[in-house]
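Late entry, written up from scratch paper. The run itself happened at the end of the previous shift, but nothing got recorded in the book at the time, so transcribing now.
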Amino acid sequence: MQKAARGYEPISRSHCGMNAALDDLPMDGTCQIFYDGEPLQVSIHNTVLTALEEAGKKLVRGVGCLGGVCGACAILYRIRGGYELRAALMCQQMVVAGMEILPLPYFPQHKAVHDLHLPEGDSPTYRVNVLYPEINRCIMCGECTRLCPQGIDVLAYVGMIKRGDLKGAAAESFICVQCQVCALRCPAQISQPNAALAARRYYGCYVAPRAEHLVKAMELAKNEQTQRCLRRLRAMDLEDLRVLYQRREREPDDAPPGTWLPESRDLI
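Output as recorded:
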């Protein structure tokens, strides 16, 4: 599967299988795929999710944001005639003729319960390793990294957690969508997404510099002007609130961060 440097990009046909016969697959019109063993004729220009819906499948599980953010629609698939097992998100992956698709069910990862309390004498690094000791069982097979639909180097951040580099692990795992593919395929039974989440939490709580702009924003929220605006909003009826929201000024998508302010500032 083709992957962007720090994100996901739908595969091209040259990457969808491992034998030359796949070059003869149709490039337009419809094609046949297999969903949970059932053959379906679908449009080749759709994502897998859209194709399944158009084929009459009512998806009540394994569907979420439809934008590649929630990780709910993870699948494993092979191209018929090829041997390589691949993973993708149905809302992002384009249909390829001959796909044999298995939707991923809920997978019971190890999820350590913690409250970010750091016992006296413990370091954040040590605490993450205590919560997820299985990371030390990693055999460095690389299957987690190979399959990740987000293009994350999962093997790398597992190594960072083991070495105590919580900053690196937090950065490398930041775009994880908890799709569970890596944990499902891991022969060492590591819960990589949850270990990474603990690393990000402990790094943010104990290691990362404090966000001074957040402290200022919290102070601003408590001042009298802000409280007066909040009281005014609470006093409005639902319809007036709806109209106010619909008429709000929207920050342009291309506005440089931290530079845009609305013309009407009486409520900020």
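Residues 217-243 form one domain.
(Scratch paper discarded after transcription.)
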